[in-house]
Amino acid sequence: MSTTGIIALVHEGEGPRAGARGWAALAVLMLPVLLVSVDNTVLAFALPEISLALQPSGAEQLWIIDVYSLVLAGLLVTMGVLGDRFGRRRMLLIGASGFAVVSALAALAPTAGLLILARAALGFFGAMLMPSTLSLLRTIFRNRDQRRLAIAVWASAFSAGSALGPVVGGFLLEHFAWGSVFLVAVPVLIPLLIGGLWLLPESRDPAPGRVDPIGILLSMAAMIPAVFAIKSFAVDGPNLTAAVLLAAGVAAGAFFVRRMQRAENPMLDMTLFRRGGFSGAILVNLLSVIALVGFLYFVSQQLQLVIGLSPMAAGLALVPGMAAMIVAGLSVVPISRRVPPHIVVPAGLSLSVLGYVIVAATAGLGSVGWLLAAFVVLGIGIGAAETISNELILAHAPPEKAGAASAVSETAYELGAVLGTAVLGGIITAFYRGALVVPEGLPPASAAHARETLAGAFAEAQELPATIGGALWDAATAAFGSGVVTTSIIGALLVAAAMVIAILTLRPTPRPVRRGVR
């Protein structure tokens, strides 16, 4: 086998080239990707407004962000397998319709609890979208060079959506109530339905086997308690509830793996994980997304609450970083033809480490310029790593199992989104609470609200007399800044771990290319 990186790992031969209809189908498949990624980042920027309007507790604030990815991550493998069986286009269109309807309902949520419930429903329908989009790319683009470019464009749609989210969200928040940020999903529904019915081919596994309800339940029982436990540990520290849930998740995961290994036609082929390139790409994907989402979680608050930018200005400040991520994702395609992944991925991620180091070194300066520069270099590394890791994941899976393999890739993405908020967001929340010294004379109720979140401290500071309100806000921003430094160091270590994994696992090994697979 050649050692030219991603090309060497693609199973299929040259294959027929897709025409204009195939590229038009790619444009349709980018719509749900944009929809989901916009939904993720627009909510991060709307969080200060939501916190002021609904007054959630610190735990509820994290749940508003986390529950979507938690439900989605728990269902992705199941939905990917169901798409393989019942049709990937069908699952895509059902998921898109439900996602748009629930988005409209979320905009009207009167309480934090109902908003969390709506976000959970969005996770359910979102789980139908992402495995279908990536697996349909494999059906449409059978030529390996075209498919590599299509996956790069598909991956860049995440970055484009993340860039559009803050800008669109900032514009909406300056002119409308916070609920408007959820309504951006609705206009995507009509072109997706029309274009999907016209341009997207239906594809499914020709021999899907039986539905495994026990396997489905075990996969959910493994993911949801484990992620919840990690979230609880990050926010509250070591506790019995987190330990019990983590043990339950690990036990369910062990039973799931054992069941898949013994099944004649398993819903998830566990032998894929024995391939270093597949497992390594999954871990790189996971750690990269943790770093990205965790960065956006605290930087959105830093820009709006600490530095004082409007939501629109804060969104525009992040556009260069998102643009760098898109350019890096597309530019790495020709580079990957000559440079193997175990070299190009760590090289890119080294810039992401630098991005976090810049944030840690400049946290006390309150500078938009340094945050902008940090996000640019962070985005370059993550953009390149995401493109290559997604290609490697698909390259190791047979075409008839593309939905399940895509679901594994998307599970890593969404699990990373959960952990980015839960772990890095939880760490900065814990450090904020521990470092906050409330001024003397502050009413107990105001002190309790200020300790919950930075937004809570901001709201209290606005209501209190100028002297004590200013003292409270100075203490809150200092406490938040100390948390930013610690969180940035931990983020840099996570990206460094991804670099090591890429070096050790993404090195191509000589072996014959599989033939005769569609």
Molecular structure report:
By secondary structure, the protein is mainly α. It contains 17 helices and no strands. The longest helix is centred in the last third of the chain and has 40 residues, at 466-505. It is globular. The two termini are 19 Å apart. Mean pLDDT is 79; it is low at 1-13 and 511-518.
User: Which structural class best describes the helix and strand composition?
Assistant: mainly alpha
Helix tally equals 17
State the total count of DSSP E strands: 0
Give the N-to-C terminal Cα separation. Answer: 19 Å
Radius of gyration, in angstroms, nearest whole number: 22 Å
Unreliable parts: 1-13, 511-518
What is the H-and-E element order? HHHHHHHHHHHHHHHHH
User: Can you tell me the overall shape?
Assistant: globular
Largest sheet: none
Helix content: over 70%
Please provide a brief summary of the model:
With 518 residues, the chain is mainly α.
Could you name the key traits of this structure?
single chain, 518 residues, mainly alpha, disordered N terminus
List the helices and strands and how they pair.
Layout: H1 6-9, H2 20-54, H3 58-86, H4 88-106, H5 112-140, H6 144-175, H7 186-199, H8 213-236, H9 240-262, H10 276-306, H11 311-336, H12 341-362, H13 368-395, H14 402-435, H15 444-452, H16 454-463, H17 466-505
